[in-house]
Amino acid sequence: MLGRKLNLILLALIIGLTGCEKEAEEELLSDGSGSQNLKNLLQLTLNGIEPATGQHYEGWLVTDEETLSTGRFNLDTLGAVFAVDSLGNRVQDIGDVNAANFQLNTYKGKISSFILTIEPNGDTDLGPSSVHYVAGNFNDDVLALAKTDHASAIGTRFNIASGAYILSTPTNGPSTSNQGLWYYDGNLATLDLPTLNTGWTYQGWIIDNSTGEMISTGTFLTPDESDSDGAGASAGPDPVPPHPGQDFLSPPRILNDGNHVAVISVEPSPDFDPAPFTLKILSGEIELDATTESIYGMDTTSNDSTIYIEAVLK
Fold it and tell me: Which of the residues 139, 165, 223, 251 has an alpha carbon 20 to 30 A from that of 190?
């Protein structure tokens, strides 16, 4: 009889301890501090992410207590994803085409979002750069769809962008007008562009289809100010308009020869790749013998809706 009572007492103690442990575990998880042991793998599926030159990508998990790097990586021209060191050197393959797996270190707090940044090769800063490419919030700590228009990324869509240009050489007069391209109508700006978050800028380009040359006409944040290089290194002596554009006087470049295209892109800032970035949002082919001092519209070529990352925690 005594033995039976002792067994019942021991059983009650075991049940009580188990209940306390379960209650403590639920309490730990409810405030998020227990999530550090729940997920140990991050799976990324990349859509529209192109190989980076002179820079690389880095993923970040944001919790309510810290921002944790999930690792640096890049892609080759076939889309294979590989890990890189801080110099951007290839270290090892970490996934399939446009997909990668990252083992997670211990982290603190409840995971809220994923951010992909662009980092310079040679980066020594342990935190994320200001160039946030895509970002997304996790749904029940499982799935995040990271896009460019997230408030923690570029912060806007580009299907609303519009623009036009004129062939003109305001720094040299009308005699050379087919050697310059400007984004104004002689008075007002002809670009209508959304505001960018920190870490991004607009850039103008002239693409020569006959040679493959990609010539920058300068970076800018607003179409109501001159761009980063004014009227360019080969401009004339006259005043520079307070708008983006460039004159190509010395040596002369004839823009209405049927081979040139005007492009507006969205670029990382700072940017370590001399070529246009993935986000080319406006484009206009300059027609053969196009009339100078006339306004020509540009096509909206934004592809930002096809650029996103599916981030899954396991």
Answer: 251
pLDDT score, position 134: 98
Q: What's residue 140's pLDDT?
A: 77
Backbone φ and ψ for 240, nearest 5 degrees, come out as: -90, 130
CB atoms within 10 A of CB 236: 18
Q: Does domain 37-153 have CATH number 1.20.1260?
A: no
**Distance between CA 206 and CA 262 in Å, rounded?**
5
- Catalogue the E-assigned strands of the chain: 41-47, 55-63, 67-75, 80-84, 90-97, 99-103, 111-120, 132-139, 143-147, 162-167, 180-182, 191-192, 200-208, 213-220, 245-247, 260-268, 279-285, 295-297, 299-300, 308-313
C-alpha span between 102 and 105 (Å, rounded): 10
Instruction: Summarize pLDDT for 241-274 with one digit per residue, the tens.
Output: 999 999 999 999 999 999 999 999 999 999 999 9
Question: Which residues make Cβ contacts (< 8 Å) with residue 142, sequence separation at least 6?
Answer: 312, 313
DSSP 291: P
The residue type of 132 is H
Q: What is the pTM of this model?
A: 0.87
Domain ranges within the chain, ordered by starting residue = 37-153, 162-304
Give the model's pLDDT for residue 17: 41
Residue 220: the pLDDT is 98
